[in-house]
Amino acid sequence: MLTLPTHVATRYVVPLREGGSLPAVVETEAGGLYVVKLRGAGQGARALAAELIVGLLATHLGLPVPELALIDVDPAFGRTEGDPEIQDLLRASHGLNVGLRFLDGAFNYDPLAGAALVSPALAADIVWLDALVSNVDRTPRNPNLLIWHRGVWLIDHGAALYFHHHWPAVDDATARRPFTHIEDHVLLPLASDLRAADARLAGRLDADVIEAILAAVPDDLVAPGAGGPGAAFDTPAAARAAYARYLAARLAAPRAFVEEAVASRAKRAGGPGGGRGAAR
């Protein structure tokens, strides 16, 4: 059984204002420092569910993601914070939130200076994952990658799996659609053979793996408001089953998202097989 560590937030250290969701560096009881994504921000609990699901998929595939944890925010937490915006955010975030281990000394990936630190195979694997989960937030303008100890680390997956903001429109046909935004992926020009990445990765995400990942997401994140007014599902179990169906349909061969990524890679390389790493 996959179990995420749970830590209690003890001190609000500093907000990170680069993004719209206003995450924060938070000190935890016995757990150290985490960058915490708060359920009261932006797209709410579903963005936190995406953070966990995609982060755990990446971790299972061996991709570099900071350690994930659940961070419990008590109603008394942050009462001394003087910023009214942050106070409101914390009041709306009581309960379990999502934390990523704070990588002290990490800095944002720069496509010009950081390319040498990303191998073609790793770039291909990251492109493949982001195409699978429809991650719109890995562009040159907003890479959502950190450099730490001369390696690249994946962060900020709350904008992925955006289908879950409108469940009534989701069916097998929509799950199998290509992800056209992959053409804007910051690592696409560096990626080696994307079909080889598909062969490496797709078979590792079977039904048991997906079930375990979904089971690790707290009920009120995977199905916020379950059973309440306007809820998409009556129970968290029903929500998990819907996520599992979506991912199973997306992973079923042939995978249109892979072919879309291959075509976009060739287009950006200037031809059917050109560019760095195309023959590797």
Low-confidence residue ranges: 272-280
Distance between the termini: 37 Å
Query: What is the tally of helical segments?
Result: 9
Strand order of the largest sheet: 1-2-3-5-4
- Structural category: alpha+beta
Number of strands: 8
Approximately how much helix is present in the residues?
25-40%
- Kindly report the average pLDDT value: 92
Number of domains: 2
Q: If you compute it from the alpha carbons, what radius of gyration comes out, rounded to the nearest whole angstrom?
A: 19 Å
Strand content: 15-25%
Walk me through this protein's architecture:
- By secondary structure, the chain is an alpha+beta fold.
- The chain folds into two domains: 6-101, no CATH class; 108-269, no CATH class.
- The protein has nine helices and eight strands.
- The strands form two sheets. Strands 1-2-3-5-4 form a five-stranded mixed β-barrel.
- Helix 1 (45-60) packs across helix 6 and helix 6 runs antiparallel to helix 8.
- The radius of gyration is 19 Å and the shape is globular.
Could you provide a short overview of the structure?
With 280 residues, the protein is of the alpha+beta class. Helix content is 33%, strand content 16%.
